[in-house]
Design brief:
The chain has 564 residues and is an alpha+beta fold. Among the domains are: 76 residues, no CATH class; 197 residues, no CATH class. It has 8 helices and 11 strands. The strands form 4 sheets. A 4-stranded antiparallel β-sheet has the order 1-7-2-3, with no helix packed on it. A hairpin with a 6-residue loop joins β2 and β3. About 1% of the residues have low confidence.
C-alpha cells in the first residue's frame, strides 16, 4: 500500500499536498534513524548504506556517520577491512619503515576536517584497488533507488520493521499541520437590513362649492407620519481601536534561547607504565533546551473583528488563542522541566566520571610518572570548570525562560483587556441601535394614531358638510363628496397596510437574526469538536510513536560503587 494511503487510513484525513507529505516521510526516516541509534547504537548496520566503489580518495558521506570501510587488495573480490586512524598519521601510514605503515592487506582510513574519507594505500582505477564505505543513510530513497515520495511503497537502506514508525511520524506531522491551518470558517450569511415600503400619498384637499348657497372647504389633513430611518453609530474596527503602540508590552514573539551551552571537555586516555590503563568514560552530550514552537492566528481574529464585524465569533477566536497560549506556556515549562531533569542526570554523570577519575588517579599514582599525574589533575580541573559552566548555562536558560514567560503574560493580559473594552463598546452601540429602531417605531405608531384620528375627524366633518350642502346642492356636489370620502377611506386602508408591512419586515429581520446566530453557534461548535478530535488523535499517535522508542531503550544497570 502506498504511504499516502497508509497515512490517510491512520489519520482519517484527505491529504491534498503531496509534496508536503513527501517531505514529512523523509523527515520521518531521519528522525526514526537518529532516535533508534541513540538508544541502540548496536543496530547501526540495520540503517547502513553501501557506497559505490571509489577509485580515488575524497568520498564525502555528508553528515552521515561512517560505519566501516573496506578496500580491495588488487585481486577482484578480495576485500579487507580498513582500520580507522587519526589524520595526523597520514604520512606515517605511507612510510614503509613506520610501524603505522598501511599495506593492501592491512589498509587504513582517515576522516578529514571536511568529512572526506581517505584510504591508504591510496585507491586507483588501474586495478582492483578501489574502496567502499558503509555509512548511515540520511538520503531517503524508495526501494527502487528513486527519491522517496508520497506514493512510494518501501524505503531503501532502512529496516522493514521500522517503516510503520515513518508512516506514524508523517501522520503526526499531517495532523499538526491541519490543526495549525484549520481556522474557523463560517458559511452562514447575516441577514440584510430590511428596506421600508413607500409611504402612501396623501389625497389632495378638494374644494366643494354649494351653488348659490355657500362654499365648504375640508380642513387640511396635514402630512402622513413616516417611520424615521435609524442609522447605526459608526463602528470602530478593532484594528483602529487598538494598536501595538498603545501597549506597554509588545508581542514577545517566539521564545529564543541565547544562552550557549559549554563545550564538553574531551576525555583523555591515561596509561600507567606497564601497570594500569585507565580511560575516562565518555561524558556524552550536554543537555540543551528545546525551544517550544507555536503559531498564533492573530490575523484570523482581526478578520472576524474588522471584516466580518462579528464580536461573538471574535470572542470564540480569542478564547482559542488564549487556549493555544496556555498550551504554549505549558510547552515552555515542560521543556524547561525536561532540560532541568536531563541536566541533573548529566551532572550526575559528570560527577561520577570525576569520582572515577579520582579513584583511577589514586590507583595509578603508585606506578605513573609525574606527567600522568599532571594530566589527570588537569582533566579533573577541566571537568570541575565544565560543571560550573554547565550550572551557569542552566541558570541562564531558566532566567531567559522566566523573563519570556512574564513578557508573554503581560502582553496577553493587555490584549484581553483591550478586546473586552472594544467588545463592550460595540455591544453598547448595537444595543443603542436596536433601542433607536424600537423608539422610532413607537413614535410612528403614536403619530399614525393621531393622524388616523385627524383623517377620521375630517371624514366626519366632510360628511356633515355634505349633509348640510345636500339640501341645496345638486347630484354633482354629492358625487364629489362621496368620491373624496372614498379616497380618504382608501388612504386610511393604505396607511394601515403600510404600518403592517413595516412591522412584518422588522419581525422577519429579528427572526432571521436569531436564526443566523444559531447557525454561527452550530458551525463554531462543529469546528471545535473537529479540532478536539484532531488533538486527541495527535496526542494518541505521538504517545504511541514515543512509546516505540521508550520500549526499545536499554534498561539502566545499577551502578556499582568503586572501592578506593
Amino acid at each position: 500500500m502506498a504511504f499516502i494511503d497508509q497515512v490517510q487510513d491512520l489519520t482519517s484525513l484527505t491529504v491534498s499536498d503531496n509534496d508536503e507529505l513527501s517531505q514529512f516521510l523523509k523527515d520521518g526516516v531521519i528522525d526514526v534513524t537518529n532516535r533508534w541509534l541513540a538508544m541502540k547504537p548496536q543496530d547501526i548496520e540495520n540503517f547502513a548504506r553501501e557506497s559505490a566503489e571509489q577509485t580515488s580518495n575524497g568520498f564525502n558521506p555528508g553528515t552521515s556517520k561512517i560505519i566501516s570501510v573496506i578496500r580491495e587488495s588488487g585481486t577482484d573480490g578480495e576485500w579487507y577491512p580498513c582500520n580507522k586512524k587519526p589524520i595526523n598519521l597520514q604520512y606515517l601510514v605511507t612510510d614503509v619503515d613506520s610501524l603505522h605503515y598501511a599495506s593492501k592487506y592491512n589498509p587504513v582510513y582517515m576522516i578529514t576536517q571536511n568529512r572526506n574519507v581517505h584510504v591508504f594505500p591510496a585507491p586507483s582505477s588501474a586495478g582492483n584497488d578501489g574502496f567502499k564505505a558503509l555509512y548511515v543513510n540520511y538520503d531517503p530513497e524508495e526501494s527502487d533507488g528513486t527519491d522517496l515520495q508520497h506514493d512510494s511503497t518501501g524505503i531503501k537502506w532502512f529496516p522493514d520493521d521500522k517503516v510503520y514508525l515513518v508512516v506514524m511520524y508523517a501522520g503526526i506531522r499531517i495532523l499538526n499541520a491541519t490543526m495549525n491551518s484549520n481556522v474557523i470558517s463560517l458559511t452562514s450569511v447575516p441577514p440584510d437590513l430590511p428596506t421600508l415600503p413607500t409611504v402612501p400619498t396623501t389625497p389632495s384637499d378638494p374644494s366643494i362649492s354649494s351653488p348659490g348657497v355657500s362654499t365648504v372647504t375640508v380642513g387640511s389633513l396635514g402630512t402622513a407620519p413616516t417611520l424615521s430611518s435609524t442609522t447605526l453609530t459608526t463602528r470602530v474596527a478593532f484594528a483602529d481601536y487598538w494598536t501595538v503602540a498603545d501597549f506597554g508590552d509588545s508581542d514577545p514573539g517566539e521564545l529564543s534561547i541565547t544562552a550557549v551551552s559549554p563545550d564538553t571537555p574531551s576525555a583523555p586516555s591515561f596509561t600507567a607504565a606497564s601497570v594500569l590503563s585507565q580511560t575516562a568514560g565518555n561524558l556524552g552530550t550536554a543537555p540543551t533546551y528545546t525551544v517550544a514552537s507555536q503559531t498564533f492566528d492573530i490575523a484570523q481574529l482581526d478578520t472576524f473583528i474588522v471584516t466580518d464585524e462579528d464580536s461573538e465569533l471574535a470572542q470564540v477566536q480569542l478564547g482559542r488563542l488564549q487556549h493555544e497560549l496556555g498550551e504554549y506556556q505549558a510547552d515552555i515549562q515542560n521543556n524547561l522541566n525536561e532540560f532541568n531533569e536531563d541536566n541533573v542526570i548529566y551532572q550526575s554523570t559528570v560527577q561520577e566520571a570525576l569520582q572515577n577519575l579520582q579513584v583511577a588517579a589514586a590507583k595509578a599514582q603508585k606506578d605513573a610518572d609525574f606527567t600522568q599525574q599532571t594530566q589527570i589533575q588537569e582533566y579533573a580541573s577541566k571537568i570541575q570548570k565544565y560543571q560550573a559552566e554547565l550550572g551557569v548555562y542552566q541558570a541562564e536558560v531558566g532566567a531567559q525562560v522566566q523573563e519570556y514567560t512574564q513578557k508573554l503574560q503581560r502582553y496577553t493580559l493587555e490584549l484581553n483587556t483591550v478586546f473586552q473594552a472594544w467588545q463592550k463598546t460595540e455591544s453598547d452601540s448595537l444595543q443603542q441601535y436596536q433601542l433607536d429602531i424600537q423608539a422610532n417605531l413607537n413614535e410612528f405608531n403614536e403619530n399614525n394614531a393621531i393622524y388616523q384620528s385627524t383623517v377620521q375627524e375630517a371624514m366626519q366633518n366632510a360628511t356633515i358638510a355634505a349633509q348640510e350642502a345636500q339640501k341645496e346642492g345638486d347630484l354633482t356636489f354629492q358625487a364629489t363628496i362621496q368620491d373624496y370620502t372614498q379616497e380618504l377611506g382608501l388612504f386610511s386602508g393604505e396607511i394601515q397596510i403600510y404600518q403592517a408591512e413595516v412591522q412584518s419586515l422588522i419581525t422577519k429581520y429579528q427572526a432571521e437574526t436569531v436564526e443566523y446566530q444559531a447557525e454561527v453557534a452550530a458551525e463554531t461548535q462543529e469546528q471545535s469538536v473537529k479540532m478536539q478530535q484532531y488533538q486527541l488523535l495527535y496526542t494518541q499517535l505521538k504517545a504511541e510513536y514515543d512509546a516505540a522508542f521508550i520500549i526499545a531503550a536499554p534498561k539502566q544497570q545499577p551502578q556499582q560503587q568503586v572501592r578506593a
